[in-house]
Amino acid sequence: MTTLYILAVILIFGLAFRFYGKFLENTYKVKDGEPVPSKEKYDGVDYVPTNKLVLLGHHFSSIAGAGPIVGPIIAGLAFGWGPAILWILFGSIFIGGVHDFSSLIISIRHGGRSIAEVAKKYINKSTYKIFLVFIWLALMYVVAVFLDLSADTFAKEPAVAQVSVLYIFIAILFGISLYRLKFKLGPSTVLALIIILAGIVYSLSNPFLALSKQSWIWVLIVYAFLASILPVWFLLQPRDYLSSYFLYFTVIIGLVGLIFGKNQISYPAFISFNSKSIGPLIPFMFITIACGAISGFHSLVASGTTSKQVDNAKNARFATYGGMLLEGLVAAIALSTVMILAKGQTGANPQQIYSQGIGKFCSIIGINPRAGQILGYLAISAFILTTVDTATRIARYIFQELFEIKESLNSRILATVISLILPILLLNMKLKDFSGNIVPVWKVVWPIFGTTNQLLAALVLLVIYVWVKRENFKHSLAIILPMLFMLFMTLTALAYTLVIKMTNGQYDVITITALILFGLAIFVVIESVSAVRKKEV
Fold it and tell me: What is its main location (predicted)?
């Protein structure tokens, strides 16, 4: 039964936060009251000291895109739920959590600087520039994948689109009331959530905001643009904070459904070491699950926006290590929607499988299954949009950093527009799979996105390892072992994918970009190893 499954997951993650998270905190000698960028560089735009709970809400909702939902479902369907849950547990605790927490600490200790800037200090300027290009291109995949998924959901479910748009306007009013009118956080939160709940009820019976997928793509591109250039307190931070409550609600619904629903596990725990649709379990399961175990994108959030909002270094573990374990829990819940399927019920796409599962869980507490299914779609929407706005903003940071552009409104606009060009091109192309069939953009981009995303995580761990060696921190194996594991898995997966695409003559923009990323990654590895050897000499 799913009861024992989810209780075991909660227990394991709880113990990990208490003991391994504390071990990491002690390793980095995190102290209460140590200098933090949000106070040292306060500017009211990017550097803003933030309440602990708001910080977790922003960070968790920013990192929790469609990855921890779509990835585990795809992997579970292909290989069985057994290998998938083992990787989610192990990866979240010993690799993803380490990666996220370390990324935040290293950024805090360097004045809120990005991982690339840290690479510049401890490796060399060439690596710094290459790292920036790698990150910027990787972010293009993130924005393209999640924009396509979001537009697809909005086009199919107008009610989801309406509530998501309502979120945006309520978030703006919430940010103004909190930061300009100085209203209290608690009452403002309750009022905002009540309005959103009313919007959900209304939209379920009056779904009038119906647009085509292509129209939604352009609407969401405009949204991403605005979220990138506006002050963080005006839209991005309050929207992420409010979205987090909805995400927490769906997590609770999932937990209640799994614990009290008496669901039978029908889907096989193991299917095969090789999937016709994905490839061999090693390495592809590890990159398909993506954000449910480890994600390089998390380091960009941690060092790009979260580090500029931490008001106390002691809150770093709560926001990042805790945030990663919470995302692992989301992945475990998503995987459970596969576990309760019969093997013959696998024709639906991941969003449908997840939403149907949430609908089933909701029925246990008396919520209509259709309403529950809409809530599932809303959860996916909330996850996706927060990733889109954060990824676009970080891409803007990276572009400004790469070309050393002075901060101003005009520079924010320029950097954002240029950063959105490649996603716009991808979203307006007709892309084909290996069989030559035209498929949605996200289906073609997802394997490369997953591989590149995990490779970025491996490179970030490599930079952190160089820093750890320079600072003579103890327990460096906690960094180097995850780094070596992820380097092997990701480089193998990327090479395998490139060989297949080039063998089939598919020299499209995705193949070319992936080839460039592979070369850049090898360069960073060589330079980082050289930096470590110089230190040891």
Answer: membrane
d(CA 191, CA 400): 37
pLDDT at 430 over 70: yes
Residue 517 belongs to what domain range? 2-536
Q: Which of 108, 99, 129 is nearest to 456 (CA)?
A: 99
Of 301, 323, 172, 315, the closest CA to residue 242 belongs to 172
Mean pLDDT across the chain? 86
At residue 400, the 3 state secondary structure works out as helix
Q: Are 38 and 54 in contact (CB under 8 A)?
A: no
* Tokens 């779509």 belong to residue: 70
CA torsion sign for 178, 183, 185, 186 is negative
What CATH number did the domain enclosing 277 receive? 1.20.1740
For the entire predicted model, the pTM comes to 0.85
Query: What is the DSSP pairing of strand 274-275 with strand 279-280?
Result: antiparallel
Instruction: Determine contact, residues 140/422, Cβ cutoff 8 Å.
Output: yes
Rounded to an integer, what distance in angstroms lies between the CA atom of residue 232 and that of residue 214?
Answer: 28
End-to-end CA distance of the chain: 56
* pLDDT value, residue 232: 81
pLDDT band at 537 (very low <50, low <70, confident <90, very high): very low
Which strand (E) or helix (H) includes residue 275? strand 274-275
Which three-class secondary structure string do you get for 187-198? HHHHHHHHHHHH
DSSP state of 405: P
What's the domain count of the chain?
A: 1
Q: What are phi and psi of 275, to 5 degrees?
A: -110, 135
How much of the chain, in percent, has pLDDT values that exceed 90?
28
